Amino acid sequence: MYGVPRTGSPHPVVAMVGGGQLARMTHQAAIALGQTLRVLAVRSDESAAQVSPDVVLGHHTDYDALRRVADGATALTFDHEHVPTELLEKLVADGVPVYPPPSALVHAQDKLVMRQRLSDLGAPVPRFASVTSTGEAEAFAIEVGGAVVIKTIRGGYDGRGVVMADTPEDARDIVARYLADGVPVMVEEKVAMRRELAALVARSPFGQGAAWPVVETVQEDGICVTVIAPAPSLPSEVASAASELALRLASELGVVGVLAVELFETSDGALLVNELAMRPHNSGHWTMDGARTSQFEQHLRAVLDYPLGDTSPLTPYTVMGNVIGADPVPDMSMDERVHHLFARLPEAKVHLYGKEERPGRKIGHVNIVGDDWESLRERAERAAHWLSHAEWTDGWDPHA
Ligand code: ADP
């Protein structure tokens, strides 16, 4: 039966599909509310499965596993977008309270559906086209002036499934390879941009909305490395427009929970929507130390239809640096790296995900709060680099 905690606990039970770091940090927020996050994980050593005592082992494409994790849960929500839409619809038909509902979540799963819906809603998006032949891809690239981005319609993350093509010929060749493998793709114009931003909001079933300040996200090789909150020198009218757009999209799409709207600030200062995520998002990790309510607590509040928390920042700026697995993995243990980091930067707030270090994998993040974003950025990036590589970017030697 749904909505009745099977443990006899007076607290609601939120079940999350996926056992990654987002589930782990949501569990951390659940603890403070007297709750235990129930997690559907594929393996018992996943990030969240290590810390929650209520783990269901199974795959997110297996309907029985989804039913097991939803049994008795007040709400079923997600740490990733990979549950097939048909299974989500089946869960809803079987009475499971799925938040965000599949009709909203599809806009975070299918880039073509998202682009079409956003343009119908009058939201600014890059020019795009669906392509089913190499000729269409080439014609689109010629139409937009050459440089395009080819994206797999489903299944991409952290830049996987995104390929840049500088000429119509490249576009044709790249699309030919995807189509030969049977992978549906779309094309869009390559946007000339100043930087990337993200507008993070939350919405509850009651219809309450709340927005955190708009942030700048710095990407390297398609992976977010640094987040500066709020985005430095963003004109206040542009920041308000971005927040209002995100709140409007949350409402029009029927989102429940956290919604991240990833944006491009174009070279002439306009905003375009890149993509949507309907779950806690990397662009909101700064809220754990820099905002009155973290995105993880807010996501729980939203899916439980509690009143939403205050999103105001606690300090003028917070900078987050992602700790990304280095190649090669350093010989120095993570324990020793943390020890040295704390000795040098006592203000650094470290969040590690319990994941094995592998090149390019997000294994943690560091937040630093304060007044001067440039100094915060330098320290957060130095701290994150140290934890990844066991090497100080400025050559600092503790023994010198
Ligand atoms: P993913 O689903 O892997 O996160 P995105 O669609 O967010 O993929 O693209 C990853 C990165 O590729 C973006 O953060 C941005 O840096 C770059 N990118 C994506 N689309 C465009 C575009 N139309 N023009 C220029 N750069 C783009």
Topology:
Layout lengths: L13 E4 L3 H12 L5 E4 L13 E3 L5 H8 L4 E4 L6 H9 L8 H8 L1 H10 L7 E4 L2 H10 L4 E5 L9 E4 L2 H13 L4 E5 L3 E11 L5 E3 L3 E6 L2 E7 L6 H18 L3 E10 L4 E7 L9 H4 L4 H9 L13 E8 L9 H11 L4 E4 L9 E9 L2 H17 L11
Parallel strand pairs: 1-2, 1-4, 2-3
Antiparallel strand pairs: 5-8, 6-7, 6-8, 9-10, 9-11, 9-13, 11-12, 12-15, 13-14, 15-17, 16-17
Count the DSSP helices.
12
| Rounded radius of gyration (Å) | 21 Å
CATH topology of the largest domain: D-amino Acid Aminotransferase, Chain A, domain 1
Query: What sequence of helices (H) and strands (E) makes up the elements?
Result: EHEEHEHHHEHEEHEEEEEHEEHHEHEEH
CATH homologous superfamily assignment of the largest domain:
ATP-grasp fold, B domain
GO molecular function, one term: 5-(carboxyamino)imidazole ribonucleotide synthase activity
Keywords: ATP-binding, Ligase, Nucleotide-binding, Purine biosynthesis
Protein name: N5-carboxyaminoimidazole ribonucleotide synthase
Domain ATP-grasp: 115-304
